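Help needed: design a sequence for this.
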């Protein structure tokens, strides 16, 4: 299998999926598909989806897709260098170097918009962890634990810059994306993934299962994207709104759709979006596909019939 090294220059095209289900190309393809599936999921409250840009002025669905395609080769490279290794300081710093290259390529492809910075961190750790494990040792919980071990090493070469997430974490006393990784991705393994599979098992469409998984994450995540743009008020409204949808029966019921529409209007009014929750949904879809050994992640279309969009 040909592996493209892309630390110096991004290849902005999807790499072909390999028949080898532990290959870097296979995992990178699933990561890219997970990002696109999250972006296309409709209707999401405050987020970019098929209806429009949500609370964002610098993003669109096409921008999100272009971003996912751009960072795919970098994720493939992370998987490649991790295969057959173990968590270590040197690996952590090699992954960070590739991650910074992915961020630069993302910003170039999107004209400076931060479409997937958080996702690069999250999926970078998870794809590295998945590449370390044998096919018969790849449950989502084990991959998340290995990713936790990788994240425990410091990136000594990291630029001494303070990110929005760092500012929010310090101001509000929340953990942020780094804390999520150091905790073993609990909002993915313990919340998003079980809810996704429970909804599927109950007969829900894939669209409803994914929306309800997103809302379950939103209901309990201290989302730094919400906190940065809207403070504690925005976070409270998002959490309470997500809980109300669940109590109404989820996004697959008429009352649940009404509550989802109401939450969408509230977040748009506040000009905020739960970007951290969206990144963790993409991680949920990725781990689900890896654990199940899927060739690809289904690009769901059922929102047209299930939800009729929102107003």
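Sure. Designed sequence:
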């Amino acid at each position: 299998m040909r592996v493209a090294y892309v630390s110096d220059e991004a290849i902005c095209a999807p790499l072909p999926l390999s028949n080898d289900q532990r290959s870097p190309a296979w995992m990178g393809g699933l990561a890219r598909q997970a990002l696109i599936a999250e972006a296309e999921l409709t209707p999401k409250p405050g987020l970019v989806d098929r209806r429009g840009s949500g609370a964002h002025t610098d993003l669109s669905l096409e921008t999100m897709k272009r971003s996912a395609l751009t960072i795919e080769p970098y994720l493939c490279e992370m998987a490649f260098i991790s295969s057959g290794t173990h968590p270590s300081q040197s690996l952590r710093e090699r992954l960070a170097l590739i991650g910074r290259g992915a961020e630069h390529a993302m910003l170039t492809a999107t004209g400076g918009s931060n479409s997937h910075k958080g996702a690069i961190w999250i999926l970078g750790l998870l794809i590295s962890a998945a590449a370390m494990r044998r096919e018969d040792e790849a449950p989502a919980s084990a991959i998340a634990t290995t990713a936790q071990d990788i994240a425990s090493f410091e990136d000594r070469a990291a630029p001494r810059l303070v990110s929005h997430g760092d500012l929010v974490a310090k101001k509000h006393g929340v953990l942020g994306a780094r804390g999520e990784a150091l905790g073993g991705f609990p909002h993915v393994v313990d919340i998003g993934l079980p809810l996704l599979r429970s909804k599927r098992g109950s007969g829900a469409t894939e669209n409803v299962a994914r929306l309800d998984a997103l809302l379950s994450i939103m209901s309990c995540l201290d989302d730094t994207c919400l906190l940065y743009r809207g403070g504690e008020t925005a976070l409270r409204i998002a959490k309470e709104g997500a809980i109300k949808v669940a109590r109404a029966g989820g996004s697959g019921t008429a009352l649940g759709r009404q509550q989802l529409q109401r939450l969408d209007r509230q977040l748009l009014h506040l000009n905020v979006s739960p970007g951290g929750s969206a990144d963790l949904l993409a991680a949920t879809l990725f781990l689900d596909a890896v654990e199940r050994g899927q060739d690809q992640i289904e690009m769901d279309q059922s929102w047209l019939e299930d939800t009729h969009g929102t107003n």
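Confidence is low (pLDDT under 50) at residues 1-19, 307-311.
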